[in-house]
Amino acid sequence: MTTTHYFNPVHIVHGAGALSALPGLLEGRRAALVIFPEARGIGLTARMERALGDALACVIEDVRPNPDVAELRPLYERFWREQADTEVIVAVGGGSAIDTAKALMTGTAGGGFDALVAGLAGDAPFAPTHFKSLVAIPTTAGTGSEVTPWATVWDRERQRKYSLHLPQTWPSHAVIDPELMLSLPPAVTLQSGLDALSHALEAIWNVHANPISDTFAVSAVHDIVAVLPQLMAQPASLELRGRMALAALKAGMAFSNTKTALAHSISYEMTLRHGLPHGIACSFMLDDVLSRALGQRPDRDRVLAEALGAPLEDAPRRLAAFIEGLGVKTRFADYGVDEQEARDMVLHALSGVRGRNFIGAQPAGEQP
């Protein structure tokens, strides 16, 4: 019997009203609030300021979607110049806010951002010297960033994507309160829900999958397929928001140990080249990736059948129908990508770091 290793050090507080636990989690420490700009208009920034009270050191709200190095550089250097003594970052929002916070929590010797980017790019040895703790409070149900150590940083000028991943970039705490998700717009609700579905499936057709990650992933797929269509029809339902938040958390717990695979490897190119939102970019081709995964390994087929139901050979069609039923197109051509570019993109993705996690990147039947 194969020995399984599973590790996730994040202290999770989940449920309606979970935000009330925040002051206790800080344990008297000063905190910088990182939050998305629209939060002020919907009253969320003020709510967080009240929750933090005297512990609040500063508010950073100029967070942009898919954080880019050009935007992060002045923010990072100002933060480490002015808030070097602040012990905790509280990140509130979707993946972009939490990714921004993970970049900010990683200090370099001179407080310069270029040293961090050079390390991420592999251009220079990377030795961050100090870190801040992170409390991640997602307002979307999808990214899973609150229970993983990874952050994505973009460089659009160089058409590159960097992944920040260090032992110290795990959040210390995740506070998952579905009450904070009630104002989420329909488009973001859909995109984040499909992102969670992608995380769950990517954790299954993955060379690093194990029985523990499978348990989280299968449950997440079942929940998302059941809940997401209902939530799109009833966005004000706190019960459905809570169920979706729990499903996204399960997906995050699954891929926190496997990492993502081919669908995400493709998605980065679709976002860089064609501007596709991440949740759509990593989910529109899930049926195609599923087709590539089937038959690669009997153990993965069994778990996919448990997640998606029988007959498994019909699962790609059913998965595409589910995604299309939510109003998302499922072919490269729908996004202006011709056949040659699509082939090249998939081949490039298979050779990437995330693509090599996909079971179909290995010869059929070969075990990792």
Describe the model:
This protein has 368 residues and is of the alpha/beta class. It folds into two domains: 11-179, Rossmann fold; 185-359, Dehydroquinate synthase-like, alpha domain (Up-down Bundle). Helix content is 46%, strand content 12%. The chain has 14 helices and ten strands. It has helices at 22-26, 44-52, 69-82, 95-104, 113-121, 186-204, 211-233, 238-258, 262-274, 278-281, 286-293, 298-308, 315-325, 339-350; strands at 11-14, 31-35, 56-60, 88-93, 106-107, 130-131, 133-138, 150-155, 160-165, 173-176. The strands form three sheets. It has a six-stranded parallel β-sheet, with helices on both faces. The protein starts with 10 loop residues before the first strand and ends in an 18-residue tail after the last helix. Residues 363-368 have low confidence and may be disordered.
Short précis:
With about 375 residues, this protein is of the alpha/beta class. Helix content is about 45%, strand content about 10%.
Instruction: State the helical fraction.
Output: 40-55%
CATH superfamily of the largest domain: Dehydroquinate synthase-like - alpha domain
Report on the biggest sheet. 6 strands, parallel
For the record, the count of structural domains works out to 2
CATH architecture tag of the largest domain: Up-down Bundle
| CATH fold category name of the largest domain | Dehydroquinate synthase-like, alpha domain
Distance between the termini: 15 Å
Assign the structural class, choosing from mainly alpha, mainly beta, alpha/beta, alpha+beta, or little secondary structure.
Answer: alpha/beta
Average residue pLDDT = 94
Beta-strand percent range: 5-15%
Morphology call? globular
What is the helix tally? 14
Instruction: Please tally the β strands and state the result.
Output: 10
CATH class of the largest domain: Mainly Alpha
Strand order of the biggest β-sheet: 1-10-7-4-2-3
- Uncertain segments: 363-368
Cα radius of gyration in angstroms: 20 Å
SSE succession: EHEHEHEHEHEEEEEHHHHHHHHH
